[in-house]
Amino acid sequence: MTSPSDPLRQLLLFFGASYAVTWAVLAAYILAGGWATDNLGPMRPGSPSFYLAVAAPSMAALALTLWQQGLAGVSGLLRRLLPFPVPPIWAAAALLGYPMLWLIVVSSMKILNGELSVLDLSPWTVALPAVLLGGHLLKDGGALGEELGWRGYALPRLLEISTPRTASVVLGLAWAVWHLPAFFVGSLSQSTFSLGPYILNVVAFSVFMTVIFIKTNGNVLWAGIVPHMMFNAVPRAGIEVFPAVTIVLGALVLLFCGPSLGGGKRPTEGGSS
């Protein structure tokens, strides 16, 4: 028998609520697209129904934290969105790691083909800043709508009951499968992806985010919102990504960094707040 404070029960409540809201909204568009569009508006980034679907994890995290810990708990959760002092290298990794990875990969391919002189840097120097400064964080909604849930609520509790390596994989799978209905909604980007590689790619990215989470003592801004924002913004800037590279790198981290993923003391839900 579990108590309300039991991390496993909290996780089950969180995942159940997050999946229920998101899947119910998307099911309406899958099963009754005409009715849903007429009554709820189109399902597309920026629409109210889209924001409701993507914000379910953060809403669930806030509601459960309020129920379990009161306003003090909610305040503690929100404080973990502040850029409190973290090692600069990990803040830089969160912000620049993903775009720099693809700059290195594309540059290496150009060098191998003797085409480095024709490398076009404008996706990194012009398009990506334009996407970010153009309000991508608010237009996309995924990072803000999800990360108080995934990295703010779920990951600390997973770290209470498992190793960082296991927690990162479990959360990555839950995060990826949560997107499943989006593969059947033609107006959403997931409908153009292959499910298997997508799941592996998300799990691999979850591994990197867990490493940053540990290194920044549970900071949700640097470990969740910023890398999630870059994960979505990079392709929109026209930067070519190669999921196989992310998957291989994630597997290498899991294999060689050990159960702790190279971390020391694991952050809990309180972080440094």
Would you mind describing this structure in some detail?
There is one protein chain. The chain contains twelve helices and no strands. The radius of gyration is 19 Å and the shape is globular. It is mostly helical and 273 residues long. The chain is 71% helix and 0% strand. It has one domain. The protein has helices at 7-31, 33-40, 48-54, 56-79, 88-112, 122-133, 136-140, 142-161, 164-178, 195-215, 220-236, 243-256.
Question: Which descriptor suits the 3D outline?
Answer: globular
Biggest sheet layout: none
Counting DSSP E segments of at least 2 residues, the number of strands comes to: 0
What portion of residues is helical?
Answer: over 70%
Order of helices and strands: HHHHHHHHHHHH
> In terms of per-residue confidence, which ranges show pLDDT below 50 for 5 or more consecutive residues?
none
Which strand-content bin applies to the residues?
under 5%
Sheet/helix structural class: mainly alpha
In DSSP terms (H or I, runs of 4 or more residues), the helix count works out at 12
Cα gyration radius (Å): 19 Å
Query: What is the typical, i.e. mean, pLDDT?
Result: 93
Distance between the termini: 31 Å
Count of discrete structural domains: 1
